[in-house]
């Protein structure tokens, strides 16, 4: 009903405009179609603008697809030029822009390009037909995102200048228009949709603004598009505020085919879009009015109650009153009231019961201030304060210490301290601050020479302290020194022997014993009486790996720990092999277990090939030579360790070594080849060949190997007897005993078994001499 009413009112206004215009200018109110000429000029007579124009931002969006014939394209130009006659074009009036589209969008001129109607008309005449596709949706998107931006001439939204888009099309769009047209309308663009010919009415409705009766138009062909001139004249010239019952409380502002309500200055529009509410400035500002605050269109003013007048400060009120008599007796202020006066107090005070004197208001009295340190009563409130050296935090209640040293500019050499007023430099104990207040110098308590120290002295933080040289200790007088034998003065805990050093002591064990891990107790060597020349042949190939190589080094040191390493006891040498053979240390190089173990720990992993045969050759030809420390008539033993197949033959040099009297123990781990181990090891295999599946099981075979080596090594006395009885010979073969004659591994090194072993060795040597087994003369070495 409302839509029909608005339409009727619009038509009535249009009719009124027609009746009011001069009859001689009827053709101007109903412009005739202008026929396009071949030279594209448009002979249009000047038309006096009969409109009550309002400023607009007006953009024409013209379909320039191939379906529009050249003659029809000229009619569209004529329609635009005739429509321009009803617009007042200018920078501060209506701004006009135009774009045409086919398969692409081609802007012809923006809202800021031209400021006169003649310039716009000439630009329309100069338009050239694109004759491509119909991308209407793309054109609407460009209109919304570019044409109506302030950068391209659109005025800011807060100026409420209506934004009008007039879209002229003759066919179905090749893209979607519903969503982008809705976005454009939501962005405040009022869209008029004009369809020519076989255009789908639903498409036009999807483009145009509501109500569709005012914004959507369809004509049969381009010859009839001129019939819309009078329709748009009515829309552009009519004042909707005069036609419709707008119900705006203050001001109605017209736009083509629409209107909006506006409020007078000092008022704001309510959510209903029609009524207005005064801006209550007095409620949002600290006006300070003593009596009344009155809202004004541009602010507020203070007013007084009847009988009062505004004072010079324009906030407080006063009147000629009884206070002028001078006998009011008010301590602070006298205020006139009708027919009398009252006493008032200054801010921060309260009137006493006598009605004249005042007492200071103590805002802190109730104890609710919450101040961390101190507080102070002011006129208005209780204010928190901080003690000297502290500052109030943003919460207005708690305090934080002021750190004068935080900026790092103190320049203190050693230490600094934050005080209440500043950052103060300090020196560490034993130092004193220089006169510059920043640097420090050491206090020399010994400088005066009064210390009387017998040997040495040292300045400390507090005093001059006497000291003694190494091997001496300070007497109780703190000045003189006495010789220090810690073994006599401390509870050293050594099981066998305590040996004093310069500033400490060490524990030592008797011969045949070794120091335990605790560094104090002693344990008997597993082969404390055994004598041999032992050479380790260690595999250092890449298949072993660095971690396992460390385990092999531990294995070697474990064997060394079980031996009596000394000049007259067992000697140890070691060579490592990979692609090449390297002698780590010879038999004659070290004579203590500690030096040997240190050399083992220093070994570097070679990590390349596995030439076991070459290692056996080197062991046979060099390691047991007198040049490298091998001794006469001392049993020769070699422990060969490998974890895989050799890259050369092992049989030849292993056989030569064994035939020369070298006892070989073969130790294989992991992928070691059993046949190779048998070729390397001395016979019988069960006594000289050991194998472990992995390195975790090496501990088991290490224990067995220690026991076997210990059982197979001659006693020192036996070796000495052999040397005395056969000085011209050296043992060339290992001495083996039957299992029936041999005690168990656990009892092998007990005294009675060692004696039995010595007797058996003596008998064995006699047998070997008789059988001519001792072959090698001393002079052959």
TrEMBL record:
Q: Which PANTHER family match?
A: COLLAGEN ALPHA, MATRILIN-2
The VWFA domain covers which part of the protein? 57-236, 533-705
Q: Cite a GO CC annotation.
A: extracellular region
Q: What protein is this chain from?
A: Matrilin 2
Whichever gene encodes this chain, its name is MATN2
Q: Can you provide one Gene Ontology molecular function annotated for this UniProt record?
A: calcium ion binding
Whether Signal counts among this entry's keywords is yes
Q: Where in the cell is it found?
A: Secreted
Q: Per the annotation, which location comes first and is thus the protein's main one?
A: secreted
Using the record, list the residue span of the signal peptide; answer none if the entry has no such feature: 1-23
Cell membrane recorded as keyword: no
Q: Which domain of life is it from?
A: Eukaryota
Pfam families hit by this protein: FXa_inhibition (PF14670), VWA (PF00092)
Could you read off the lineage of the organism from its UniProt record?
A: Eukaryota, Metazoa, Chordata, Craniata, Vertebrata
Q: Which UniProt keywords apply?
A: Coiled coil, Disulfide bond, EGF-like domain, Glycoprotein, Repeat, Secreted, Signal
